[in-house]
């Protein structure tokens, strides 16, 4: 997975209902590939599209910024904050001259646990939900024993319910509602800033290819190590889950290779 620029624009990933598709030209390096996205697509969906088109060619140790071709300037500009696709446009993914943080050993004093959207309404839809609840329980028990801070999010809890009762949130540093894919909310960033020397995030929950993936992208873009717990994350579709975990496996292999070369 490629990391997004640390100052990535907002703009939710969930397009409004209706509106059809909008043609977009996605450019990376010397390549330009036409595709389409739903009307109203935001930053997160655009990143997903870049990954689907160019995932095998992206250097996973680099950070990237998304730029939009502006007719009035006749050149590319950084994607405006809150940008939503409403008409035909041309975008490019530009690598920055900053190396990615590679994965290292976990130490309790520099680690935070992220529990993502383990909610009741997902129970009948998510594959092996009971199994990931069981592993999630053990992870949180371990966090309490080791004094590791825990941050929990719930996706639109008014409609999707709260975190399942089996998951004991006693002592959690934050339990927050959200309406975007990523867990990296302003309150979460503020909480991370309060933890001295935080370096690593252990991430688990649902869904692997959406909220987990987008959270990982944003955390990596902020220079943090991200460890996804494979047996504590899942999706509605096993294909989606396996594809997302395969991307992460390639990232780990690439990280190890990069460290050996240096």
Molecular structure report:
Helix content is 31%, strand content 29%. The protein contains six helices and eleven strands. Strands 1, 2, 3, 4, 5 and 6 form a six-stranded mixed beta sheet that branches. The radius of gyration is 18 Å and the shape is globular. The two termini are 21 Å apart. 34% of the residues are buried. Mean pLDDT is 84; it is low at 1-17 and 256-260.
Proportion in β-strands: 25-35%
Summarize the main sheet.
6 strands, mixed
Can you tell me the overall shape? Answer: globular
| Termini Cα gap | 21 Å
Class from secondary-structure proportions: alpha/beta
| Low-pLDDT residue spans | 1-17, 256-260
Helix content range: 25-40%
Number of strand segments: 11
Number of contiguous helices: 6
Alpha carbon gyration radius: 18 Å
Q: Would you list the SSEs in sequence order as H and E?
A: EEEHEEEEHEHEHEHEH
What integer is the average pLDDT?
Answer: 84
Question: What is the structure about, briefly put?
Answer:
The protein is of the alpha/beta class. It is 31% helix and 29% strand.
Key descriptive features of the protein:
29% strand, 262 residues, single chain, alpha/beta, disordered N terminus, five-stranded parallel beta sheet, six-stranded mixed beta sheet
Secondary structure layout:
Blueprint: E1 3-4, E2 21-28, E3 31-38, H1 43-54, E4 62-70, E5 75-78, E6 89-99, E7 111-116, H2 129-146, E8 150-155, H3 157-160, E9 174-178, H4 186-194, E10 200-206, H5 208-221, E11 225-234, H6 238-261
Parallel strand pairs: 1-4, 2-6, 7-8, 7-10, 8-9, 10-11
Antiparallel strand pairs: 2-3, 4-5, 4-6
